[in-house]
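Render this sequence as a predicted structure.
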Amino acid sequence: MPIASFYTLPPTLLTPHEQQRGMCRVIAKVWQVMGEADILCPDRETGQIMDDLLWTFQAGAFVPHVRGAGESIRIHDGGVWPLQSKALVLCGLDELPTPVPACERLIDFIPVAEQTRDLARERYKRLKNAGFTMQVHPLEV
């Protein structure tokens, strides 16, 4: 049974950049545990931001990644998603991909802003109804 882990972004991470840096820390952990992941971004701009941050989010950290195919961490943007993945990380998507790519693990984030929190609640309900085992974790700063 696949697992969906939602990370609550703390209110102390007020700017989108700080929130994305927090997401990079989770991506680094996913890479260490799962060995690979596909990062789904809503648009090219977010994909480029995540690409840049994975190089600089933490001094001394290295997460091998590429936009598209070819590395253990793959960044996808603009609605072209893989059909399956060992681990999926949703970075800024308002809605789940349709269909949700087959995966062992799905990582999503619960943002601070109330409007986007409601969208995260909808993604949570949809994944639970699809048979995912649900987890919620605080993202510690």
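Summary. The chain has a mean pLDDT of 90. The longest helix spans residues 16-34.
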